[in-house]
Specification:
Radius of gyration: 18 Å
CATH class: Alpha Beta
Largest sheet: 5 strands, mixed
Helix content: 25-40%
CATH topology: Alpha-Beta Plaits
Distance between the termini: 30 Å
Order of helices and strands: EEHEEHEH
Shape: elongated
Length: about 110
């Protein structure tokens, strides 16, 4: 998964390949995001490329924040996997294992 997004009111979590294993890029990202009016806190993990952004919903809307991240080149919503898509993919993998086990296709 290159891009990931989870959004709840006042909280946005993203993953971006631009941040993954790029500490210098992570520092630039942190500086840029902290300057956005309405952002109240930011945590990043350059190992996973994830960022957790808390923001004041009265000062900043999620779609505006996402648009700003896209403009800066750190995130692309059209390429992002959501929780629902992530869970669906996991369920498909589990279902395949179960079907393979039932039909005897798992070799021990």
């Amino acid at each position: 998964m290159d891009y990931y997004i989870n959004s709840t009111p006042g909280r946005l979590r993203i993953q971006s390949p631009k941040l993954r294993h790029h500490p210098a890029e992570d520092e630039k990202f942190q500086k840029a995001v902290r300057e956005i009016a309405g952002v109240t806190s930011l945590e990043t993990n350059p190992t996973t490329g994830s960022a957790l952004i808390h923001y004041d919903e009265k000062a900043l809307k999620a779609d505006k924040l996402i648009s700003m991240l896209e403009t800066m080149g750190y995130f692309y919503l059209s390429k992002a996997e959501t929780d629902d898509q992530y869970l669906a993919a996991g369920v498909e993998k589990i279902a395949k294992v179960v079907v393979d086990a039932v039909t005897g296709e798992i070799v021990e």
